[in-house]
Amino acid sequence: MDASLAVRLAELGISPARLAARGLQPYAEADAASLVLADMNDAGREFHLLPGAATAWQAMRDAAAADGVTLFLVSAFRSVARQYEIVAAKLARGQCLDTILAVSAAPGFSEHHTGRAIDIGTPGSPVLEEHFETTPAFAWLQQHAANHGFAMSFDRNNASGYLYEPWHWCWQDPAAQPTSKGLTA
Predict the structure, then answer these.
(1) What is the Cα 124 distance to its own chain's centre?
(2) Contact between residue 8 and residue 84 where contact means Cβ atoms under 8 Å apart
(3) Is residue 181 part of a domain?
(4) What is the mean predicted confidence (pLDDT) over 51-62?
(5) What InterPro entries does the database record attribute to this sequence (predicted)?
(6) Which of 28, 44, 73, 134 is the most buried (most CB within 10 A)?
(7) What pTM, to 2 d.p., does this model score?
(8) For position 92, which CATH number holds?
(9) Domain residue limits at 116
Protein backbone atom coordinates (compact mmCIF):
# COMPACT_ATOMS: atom_id res chain seq x y z
CA MET A 1 0.00 0.00 0.00
CA ASP A 2 1.43 3.36 -0.97
CA ALA A 3 1.86 6.17 1.55
CA SER A 4 -0.83 8.43 0.04
CA LEU A 5 -3.44 5.67 0.33
CA ALA A 6 -2.40 5.01 3.94
CA VAL A 7 -2.89 8.73 4.70
CA ARG A 8 -6.36 8.75 3.09
CA LEU A 9 -7.37 5.67 5.08
CA ALA A 10 -6.09 7.26 8.30
CA GLU A 11 -8.16 10.38 7.57
CA LEU A 12 -11.23 8.12 7.58
CA GLY A 13 -10.14 6.23 10.70
CA ILE A 14 -9.51 3.01 8.79
CA SER A 15 -6.43 1.09 9.87
CA PRO A 16 -4.63 -1.13 7.35
CA ALA A 17 -4.65 -3.85 10.03
CA ARG A 18 -8.47 -3.82 10.04
CA LEU A 19 -8.53 -4.40 6.28
CA ALA A 20 -5.79 -7.04 6.43
CA ALA A 21 -7.73 -8.91 9.14
CA ARG A 22 -10.55 -9.31 6.60
CA GLY A 23 -8.07 -10.53 4.00
CA LEU A 24 -8.64 -7.48 1.82
CA GLN A 25 -6.00 -6.37 -0.66
CA PRO A 26 -5.82 -3.02 -2.44
CA TYR A 27 -6.85 -2.81 -6.09
CA ALA A 28 -4.86 -0.76 -8.57
CA GLU A 29 -6.87 2.07 -10.06
CA ALA A 30 -7.36 1.78 -13.81
CA ASP A 31 -5.72 4.53 -15.81
CA ALA A 32 -8.53 6.88 -16.86
CA ALA A 33 -7.08 7.00 -20.37
CA SER A 34 -7.60 3.23 -20.69
CA LEU A 35 -11.32 3.38 -19.89
CA VAL A 36 -14.05 3.47 -22.53
CA LEU A 37 -17.73 4.35 -22.46
CA ALA A 38 -19.53 1.10 -21.64
CA ASP A 39 -23.06 2.47 -21.39
CA MET A 40 -25.16 5.53 -20.60
CA ASN A 41 -28.42 5.65 -18.67
CA ASP A 42 -31.57 7.55 -19.60
CA ALA A 43 -30.45 10.52 -17.48
CA GLY A 44 -27.20 10.76 -19.46
CA ARG A 45 -24.92 9.34 -16.77
CA GLU A 46 -21.93 7.66 -18.37
CA PHE A 47 -20.44 4.39 -17.17
CA HIS A 48 -16.82 3.60 -18.02
CA LEU A 49 -14.97 0.29 -17.99
CA LEU A 50 -11.83 -1.26 -19.43
CA PRO A 51 -12.39 -2.07 -23.12
CA GLY A 52 -12.72 -5.84 -22.60
CA ALA A 53 -15.14 -5.41 -19.71
CA ALA A 54 -17.17 -2.87 -21.70
CA THR A 55 -17.46 -5.21 -24.68
CA ALA A 56 -18.39 -8.12 -22.39
CA TRP A 57 -21.01 -5.99 -20.59
CA GLN A 58 -22.59 -4.87 -23.86
CA ALA A 59 -22.73 -8.46 -25.18
CA MET A 60 -24.21 -9.69 -21.90
CA ARG A 61 -26.80 -6.89 -21.76
CA ASP A 62 -27.80 -7.59 -25.37
CA ALA A 63 -27.99 -11.36 -24.81
CA ALA A 64 -30.23 -10.81 -21.78
CA ALA A 65 -32.45 -8.48 -23.83
CA ALA A 66 -32.74 -11.14 -26.53
CA ASP A 67 -34.05 -13.44 -23.79
CA GLY A 68 -36.54 -10.80 -22.61
CA VAL A 69 -34.50 -9.66 -19.59
CA THR A 70 -33.54 -6.03 -19.09
CA LEU A 71 -30.23 -5.25 -17.38
CA PHE A 72 -28.84 -1.78 -16.77
CA LEU A 73 -25.75 -0.39 -15.09
CA VAL A 74 -26.04 1.28 -11.71
CA SER A 75 -22.28 1.70 -11.25
CA ALA A 76 -19.07 0.87 -13.08
CA PHE A 77 -15.57 2.36 -12.72
CA ARG A 78 -15.17 4.37 -9.54
CA SER A 79 -11.95 6.20 -8.67
CA VAL A 80 -10.18 5.92 -5.34
CA ALA A 81 -11.01 9.61 -4.78
CA ARG A 82 -14.73 8.96 -5.37
CA GLN A 83 -14.66 5.98 -3.00
CA TYR A 84 -13.08 8.24 -0.37
CA GLU A 85 -15.93 10.74 -0.86
CA ILE A 86 -18.55 7.99 -0.44
CA VAL A 87 -17.07 6.72 2.82
CA ALA A 88 -16.45 10.26 4.15
CA ALA A 89 -20.05 11.28 3.41
CA LYS A 90 -21.39 8.26 5.29
CA LEU A 91 -19.15 9.08 8.26
CA ALA A 92 -20.34 12.70 8.15
CA ARG A 93 -23.95 11.44 8.36
CA GLY A 94 -23.01 9.64 11.58
CA GLN A 95 -22.86 6.09 10.27
CA CYS A 96 -20.66 3.66 12.18
CA LEU A 97 -17.43 2.68 10.39
CA ASP A 98 -18.14 -1.05 10.84
CA THR A 99 -21.54 -0.60 9.16
CA ILE A 100 -20.00 1.40 6.31
CA LEU A 101 -17.25 -1.14 5.68
CA ALA A 102 -19.79 -3.96 5.50
CA VAL A 103 -21.38 -2.35 2.42
CA SER A 104 -18.73 -0.02 1.00
CA ALA A 105 -15.12 -0.81 0.30
CA ALA A 106 -12.43 1.37 1.78
CA PRO A 107 -10.76 3.68 -0.76
CA GLY A 108 -8.18 1.67 -2.68
CA PHE A 109 -9.96 -1.61 -1.88
CA SER A 110 -12.92 -1.56 -4.29
CA GLU A 111 -13.15 -3.78 -7.35
CA HIS A 112 -14.74 -0.77 -9.04
CA HIS A 113 -11.27 0.85 -9.13
CA THR A 114 -10.14 -1.79 -11.63
CA GLY A 115 -12.59 -0.82 -14.38
CA ARG A 116 -13.88 -4.41 -14.44
CA ALA A 117 -16.65 -4.33 -11.77
CA ILE A 118 -20.28 -3.41 -12.35
CA ASP A 119 -23.40 -3.04 -10.27
CA ILE A 120 -26.45 -4.19 -12.22
CA GLY A 121 -30.09 -3.20 -11.92
CA THR A 122 -33.33 -4.23 -13.59
CA PRO A 123 -36.65 -2.40 -13.93
CA GLY A 124 -39.06 -2.92 -11.05
CA SER A 125 -36.39 -3.78 -8.50
CA PRO A 126 -34.82 -1.33 -6.05
CA VAL A 127 -31.18 -0.78 -6.97
CA LEU A 128 -28.37 -2.05 -4.76
CA GLU A 129 -30.72 -4.08 -2.59
CA GLU A 130 -30.82 -7.78 -1.84
CA HIS A 131 -34.27 -7.93 -3.46
CA PHE A 132 -32.39 -8.08 -6.79
CA GLU A 133 -31.85 -11.81 -6.16
CA THR A 134 -35.59 -12.43 -6.61
CA THR A 135 -35.68 -11.01 -10.14
CA PRO A 136 -35.58 -12.76 -13.50
CA ALA A 137 -32.47 -10.64 -14.17
CA PHE A 138 -30.57 -12.30 -11.32
CA ALA A 139 -31.73 -15.75 -12.41
CA TRP A 140 -30.53 -14.95 -15.93
CA LEU A 141 -27.16 -13.73 -14.63
CA GLN A 142 -26.67 -16.88 -12.59
CA GLN A 143 -27.16 -18.96 -15.73
CA HIS A 144 -25.35 -16.79 -18.27
CA ALA A 145 -22.96 -14.24 -16.72
CA ALA A 146 -20.01 -16.65 -16.72
CA ASN A 147 -20.43 -17.08 -20.49
CA HIS A 148 -19.58 -13.37 -20.73
CA GLY A 149 -16.71 -13.51 -18.24
CA PHE A 150 -18.59 -12.08 -15.25
CA ALA A 151 -18.70 -13.57 -11.76
CA MET A 152 -20.64 -12.41 -8.72
CA SER A 153 -18.07 -11.12 -6.23
CA PHE A 154 -19.88 -11.12 -2.90
CA ASP A 155 -22.13 -14.11 -2.32
CA ARG A 156 -23.68 -14.89 1.04
CA ASN A 157 -21.12 -15.32 3.80
CA ASN A 158 -18.25 -14.26 1.53
CA ALA A 159 -14.78 -14.34 3.04
CA SER A 160 -14.24 -10.59 2.58
CA GLY A 161 -16.89 -9.69 5.16
CA TYR A 162 -19.08 -7.67 2.81
CA LEU A 163 -22.82 -8.04 2.93
CA TYR A 164 -24.37 -10.14 0.19
CA GLU A 165 -24.41 -8.18 -3.10
CA PRO A 166 -26.31 -10.07 -5.80
CA TRP A 167 -26.04 -7.00 -8.06
CA HIS A 168 -22.21 -6.74 -8.01
CA TRP A 169 -20.39 -8.63 -10.77
CA CYS A 170 -16.79 -8.44 -11.92
CA TRP A 171 -15.38 -9.27 -15.34
CA GLN A 172 -12.59 -11.81 -15.21
CA ASP A 173 -10.10 -10.75 -17.88
CA PRO A 174 -9.30 -13.93 -19.83
CA ALA A 175 -5.85 -12.55 -20.65
CA ALA A 176 -5.05 -12.56 -16.92
CA GLN A 177 -6.39 -16.08 -16.29
CA PRO A 178 -4.03 -19.05 -16.08
CA THR A 179 -3.92 -21.29 -19.12
CA SER A 180 -4.18 -25.06 -18.84
CA LYS A 181 -0.41 -25.17 -18.24
CA GLY A 182 -0.70 -22.75 -15.33
CA LEU A 183 0.79 -19.85 -17.26
CA THR A 184 -0.96 -16.62 -18.09
CA ALA A 185 -1.76 -15.93 -21.69
Answers:
(1) 21
(2) yes
(3) no
(4) 98
(5) DD-CPase-like (IPR052179), VanY-like_core_dom (IPR003709), VanY/YodJ_core_dom (IPR058193), Zn_M74/Hedgehog-like (IPR009045)
(6) 73
(7) 0.91
(8) 3.30.1380.10
(9) 3-22+31-176
